[in-house]
Design brief:
Length: 549
């Protein structure tokens, strides 16, 4: 029974499962099932393809990003390496440049004044001396005694008279000036050829410089071309003078350097210090709308002050005083009733710090004044140190040394030649600079009186060399061998050497005139000297051996 019941139930279940109304899809045709499967496979394939494309795009983007990062890192590394290489080359170039500059300065310092000491150097010079008859010792000695030696006593008397009158005139000038508003004038000093005892040509003119300072509470702040300020190459040797308040620096206040608000007041400075009108700087002889001292304003003030001073003391003297040259504001002339006259220059100057270097307003009897670029540019003069150097060296030379005689003879010949052919760019200051170089380069015994002829030849040959090279260096500027006894400022010793012939490099006409004048002077030298020389017996001259040129 149970077995039969089980069989019946199994049959019913089998019938129900296989009935067509149940699971109709399971009983479909093979074609319908195949199409459905293919469609699903295509959909799946399309889905997989899109997924593959998306993954490939992501991988490509990641690879591109990675490559960009790697490239940027490579560029950065390359730039860093290039920068390191560039810094290395820059440092190496700077070191090489410094070594070259140090070598150049050492070479220049060792050789720029090595003059006349080597016979080989002199052998290649002296081309202009070929065919020139150079006077011998006897002729030179006679010429010096007849034409030059007698002028020393006249210069001494003139110096004494001019200095006494100048002191009296400056004392009167101080009395007529307003001590609270005008410049303060100091005592004058004599400089130049008259006071160095080598002036030979008349009329004798004394050069006096007069230092002056601003009234309290003002002071001068001097700036030179070698103090780090920006000066163009053609203004080497110049400087500027700024008028400042002395108390401003003493308090350390920055109110003049910082723009304070209109409603703010500096407690360190009272309003009294700012009550002067807007033309305050012009009252202090400054250039318009600046704080820089104007040389033209200074000379106008000085002329007016000298005129007032002379009017005060003129009754004490039996002569007249007048300004002799329009282009030289400090050129004065004393006219006696007998018709004789005495000329001298009284030039205001400004002291550079605590030294004896001075800023000079203009150059008496010189074309250099026309070359000054601006009235706020002041040229530096080292005349006091030049005089001291000559005096210092003279103490070490033999008795009756010939150094001053050489300069006197050369100055006389140059002056005579200029009177024949007209002035040139070559000046007596150039001739004195040549002597200063030779005094430092040659030993003391070479300046014995019997060696006058040889030293005069050395000066001419050195001058010829300078003209050929267009280089004649200032004796003090850039000269590290200046004697320490002079107390010369170190800033000028460390400066670049100043070429006095630099203005002639671009002005070929003046340079050619200067060279022609020098050559003409050499050719006319014997005739000019013989003109002022007494007759010397032939037997006397034959007994003197000439040194070869």
């Amino acid at each position: 029974m149970p077995v039969g019941l089980f069989r019946v139930c199994l049959l019913v279940i089998t019938a129900i499962v296989n009935h067509p109304l149940f699971f109709p899809k399971e009983n479909g045709t093979i074609a319908e099932n195949t199409e459905e499967i293919i469609r699903k496979m295509k959909e799946r394939e399309e889905s997989l393809r899109l997924e593959q494309l998306r993954l490939e795009q992501e991988i490509a983007d990641q690879e591109a990003t990675q490559k960009a990062l790697e490239k940027a890192a490579a560029v950065a590394e390359e730039s860093k390496e290039e920068k390191v290489r560039w810094d290395m080359w820059t440092a190496l170039s700077l070191v090489i440049f410094l070594l070259i500059e140090l070598w150049r300065q050492d070479f220049q310092e060792a050789n720029w004044q090595d003059i006349g000491g080597e016979e080989d150097d002199m052998a290649v010079l002296g081309k202009a001396f070929k065919g020139v008859a150079f006077p011998d010792k006897a002729v030179l000695a006679s010429f010096y005694e007849k034409r030059i030696l007698g002028t020393t006593a006249d210069m001494a008397r003139m110096r004494e008279m001019v200095e006494g009158f100048a002191d009296d005139l400056l004392e009167a000038l101080r009395s007529v000036c307003n001590r609270d508003a005008d410049m303060e004038v100091e005592d004058c000093m004599g400089v130049g050829s008259i006071y160095e005892n080598w002036r030979v040509r008349k009329p004798f003119v004394c050069d006096l410089i007069v230092p002056f300072a601003p009234p309290e509470p003002y002071c001068f702040r001097c700036q030179t071309w070698c103090s780090g300020d920006s000066f163009p190459p053609d203004e080497q040797g110049y400087g500027t003078i700024k008028v400042c308040r002395a108390d401003a620096d003493a308090t350390g206040c920055i109110c003049d350097k910082t723009k304070l608000g209109e409603d703010m007041l500096c407690l360190l400075h009272s309003q009294v210090s700012n009550t002067r009108p807007s033309n305050e700087m012009e009252d202090l002889l400054c250039f318009k709308n600046t704080q820089y001292l104007d040389a033209n304003q200074v000379m106008k003030w000085f002329q007016i002050a000298v005129t007032k001073a002379w009017n005060r003391i003129s009754h004490k003297y039996e002569f007249d005083l007048s300004f002799s040259l329009l282009d030289s504001p400090g050129a004065l002339k004393i006219k006696f009733k007998s018709g004789k006259s005495v000329a001298f220059n009284l030039t205001p100057v400004v002291q550079y710090e605590n030294s004896d270097v001075y800023f000079i307003s203009h150059f008496p009897r010189s074309s250099l004044a026309a070359d000054i670029p601006s009235s706020t540019r002041w040229f530096l003069t080292f005349a006091v140190y030049e005089r001291r150097f000559i005096q210092l060296v003279s103490k070490t030379l033999p008795a009756n040394a010939c150094h001053v005689s050489c300069l006197q003879i050369l100055s006389f010949l140059h002056g005579k030649q200029c009177s024949l052919t007209g002035p040139s760019g070559l000046t007596n200051y150039h001739l004195k600079t040549v002597l200063l170089h030779l005094l430092q380069a040659r030993p003391s015994q070479d300046w014995a009186p019997e060696k006058l002829e040889a030293r005069l030849q050395d000066m001419l040959k050195f001058l010829e060399k300078c003209l050929h090279e267009k280089k004649l260096y200032h004796f003090f500027i850039g000269n590290g061998k200046v004697p320490a006894e002079l107390g010369f400022p170190i800033i000028f010793q460390r400066a670049e050497p100043l070429n006095l012939f630099r203005p002639f490099v671009l002005r070929r006409d003046i340079y050619r005139k200067m060279v022609d004048t020098f050559h003409e002077m050499l050719r006319n030298m014997s005739a000019l000297i013989n003109e002022y020389t007494v007759h010397i017996p032939l037997a006397h001259t034959n007994g003197i051996r000439k040194e070869p040129l």
